[in-house]
Amino acid sequence: MRILTVNAGSSSLKLRLLGDGDELLAAEDPPRPDAGEEGDLEAVVARLGPIDAVGHRIVHGGSRFVEPVRIDPGVRRVLEELTDLAPLHQPASLAALDAVTAALPDVPAVACFDTAFHAGLPDAAATYALPRAWNERWGLRRYGFHGLSHAYAARRAAELLRRPVAGLRVVTCHLGSGASLAAVRDGRSVDTTMGFTPLEGLVMATRSGDVDPGLLLWLQERAGLEPAAMSAELESRAGLLGLSGTADMREVVARTAAHDPAAVLALGVYLHRLRGAIAAMVAALDGLDVLVFTGGVGEHAPEVRAGAVEGLGFLGLRIDPVRDREVKGDALISPPGTTVQVLVVSAREDIEIARGVRQALTA
């Protein structure tokens, strides 16, 4: 089965064609189509050759979609209804879905959800301490995101260490423009840092992460900030960008090395939150066997990996500085003989999507 995976970001589109053994047969990064526009996508898809099935990364599946599902008009309609839960991401995914469907109208397509991996969170981890009537009326809960990346990284860690998934306690750190952690036991997510929206949790490139809700209410009342304006600030002008003036972690690290005060503070806040969240994930697992870094920052910023582990030696975490600097691809970066292993794993959401396609079409 030759599977085309479609991964639409807020400004990018990644097409990957995988074979039966998940080997990469072709790759294209065309411009992302806007809603109702096919653009040149039909010609791009035609260049890829025969395609037997398509898998789409969909950010939000709500409470209804907790596993990959074959797309039909009814499913497409429900996905659009979920847009208000992920207004920045869902439209991009749906625009790509429509454009690829127009190019491949007779090829079966499957939706694979970033929220699905966290659908089985224990009630204690999934529930907000809000009035019960609110939770029940509006379906409020912690959904979690980046599930495709977390699922792949945890399973790949078990493969690299040649250990069974059963019994393995893994904390996966997906660090990119968006960032989140997951506590994974026996291959299942038991806690994560993102919540009802992707704003909760870690400091990110342009997102604030956790903020005291009382502070936001204070700003609404005293500064007169409207919800739309506040949402735009928290989503697009906070995080590293808000603290340092740049959303690029590479620039933050370089400026920190040059003792730029704003960059030093931004990186310090980022790492402080990251270390605390890693420790919280370990608490949810009652211990730790493996820590995994993945995503653009997680894979390519040794200073961030070293800074994240610094101060967590009491958890058995250590990094070999030479391995950390020289790592390429999937590799171990903890010193020999350590109890807790630290790995870098290349993000391969395409492989996880292909896995979901096979699951949905062969069930």
What do these coordinates show?
- The protein has helices at 41-47, 73-81, 90-103, 123-126, 132-138, 147-161, 213-223, 227-236, 239-244, 249-257, 261-285, 295-300, 302-309, 321-326, 349-362, and strands at 3-8, 13-18, 24-28, 53-58, 69-70, 109-113, 169-175, 179-185, 188-192, 290-294, 331-332, 341-344.
- It has 363 residues and is of the alpha/beta class.
- Helix 1 crosses helix 3 and helix 11 (261-285) packs across helix 13.
- A hairpin with a 2-residue loop joins strand 8 (179-185) and strand 9.
- Helices cover 42% and strands 17% of the residues.
The radius of gyration over CA amounts to 20 Å
Q: What proportion strand?
A: 15-25%
> What gross morphology would you assign?
globular
- Number of distinct beta strands: 12
Helical residues, percent: 40-55%
Order of helices and strands: EEEHEEHHEHHHEEEHHHHHEHHHEEH
- Classify the secondary structure makeup into a structural class: alpha/beta
Task: Trace the largest sheet across and list its strands.
Answer: 3-2-1-4-6-5
Overall mean pLDDT score? 95
Low-confidence stretches: none
How far the N terminus sits from the C terminus, by CA atoms, comes to 15 Å
Number of contiguous helices: 15
Main sheet: strands, sense, barrel? 6 strands, mixed
List keywords for this structure.
single chain, 363 residues, alpha/beta, six-stranded mixed β-sheet, 15 helices, 12 strands, 42% helix, globular
